Amino acid sequence: MLFYLACIIIVAIIITRIKEGPFAAFLLIVATKSIVDATWETKIGPLSLIAIEGILIPIMFYKSMSKHYVGKGWANLGILLFVALCFGIAYGFLFNPLNALESFIKYINILLAFFLIPYLIDTPEKLKKFLIALMIGGIFPIAISIFQGQTGIVWSERKTVGLTRMVGLYHDAFPVRFYGYFTLIGSALYLFLFRPKTYAKLGIFLLMLSSVYAIYNVFSKAGMLILVMSGLCYVIYAPNKLKSAFLVITFSLCAFLLLGEKMESNIEQLFSKETGFQSGEIEDARYTLAGRGYIWEEMLENWEKRSAIGKFFGDGINRPAHNEFLRVLLVSGIIGVFLYALFFIRIGILGLKYRGKVKPFLLMLLAMYLIDCTGLTPGDYYYYNILLWGFIGLFLMKSELFDDLRNKIIYY
After folding, report:
1. Where do runs of H (alpha helix) occur along 218-307?
2. What is the largest CA-CA distance in the chain?
3. Any idea what the Cα angle at residue 202 is, between residues 201 and 207, rounded to 5°?
4. What is the DSSP string of 132-147?
5. How far apart are CA 388 and CA 178, in angstroms?
6. CA end-to-end span of the chain
7. pLDDT (tens digit, 9 = 90+) per residue, 21-69?
8. Rounded distance, CA 206 to CA 351, Å?
9. Residue 164: beta bridge partners?
10. What is the pLDDT of residues 333-376, one digit of tens each?
11. Distance (Å, rounded) from C-alpha 317 to C-alpha 348?
């Protein structure tokens, strides 16, 4: 049933692109992507609907890929990341062409991410519609998470340190946490920039609390850390720190009441390996972070066994390295990691130097990306990058749009 609904959605997106234009089609993608992603198990031939949509997006929005819309500096930064990610892709096509092709499509989408949202959104009205679509897109995974939490029904059995992860219809914890967090960002940004009516404010506030509920119930260490870092960024970099601290504390208290009395013990259990290592009960550091140390060690051994050419240029084959720097090292070699580090440094400098009204949100997203690069591989998730670099590009390239909206809230 869900698969057929997702097929209808993809057809509707194509028709909307033809009849209504790119912006309307993009809004439909944003509002429905979480439904399409829930069909990850079902394929048409060798391709899932997620992959099919990943092929269609660059085709539908290729006209946005111009330096004219975003500026030379931001476009070059996207090109730098693209080159870093696919530096060794030619070798991948020789030895594992299907893996390399799948990766290349993802990298094209990541390059597109630097252009798409800044190209499509240039007015307050379009920004408002985009944020509303983003909130709508989060309702499905959040609702499934709440349903699962209240009924105990489990579709996919996923556990970590004895805790059952409420991943709903998804492959693992990441999609639920990802959609929950971007729903939280979109909701907070909407309240920050616009003046919705009281009932709309209440609805958005409840959606934000529900987002935290969904993120919490997948029991992701990264998810917990991202929430904490987001609160700190908002308090430290917001213009009115006292008011921001009050809002964050009030929201946190509401979230604690929602999550219930087991929250403290569950978080202690979630981080039990890390606290055990700190106290000396666990001696092997590789056992922490869900055993990622063993994966990292295996991946490093793979790289160390290569020839000098393989070490410098990579082999273009994507692997579940659970660390983006390590994944890039294997795919693109030392040269790729060097380029990726340059990108990382440059984007960090841009974020810290930014003086716009939405700086807290920009730094929240960069903090999320840094955390995800440590324990996950963001380069594997093209839609994650479309939203991440789309938002950041919009903040940097069209800062006056946000500043004007915020000034209207403050002074009028």
Report:
1. 221-237, 241-259, 263-270, 272-279, 288-304
2. 65
3. 95
4. HHHHHHHHHHHHHHHH
5. 11
6. 49
7. 999 999 999 999 999 999 998 988 888 999 999 999 999 999 988 888 8
8. 30
9. 159
10. 999 999 999 999 999 999 999 999 999 999 999 999 999 999 99
11. 28
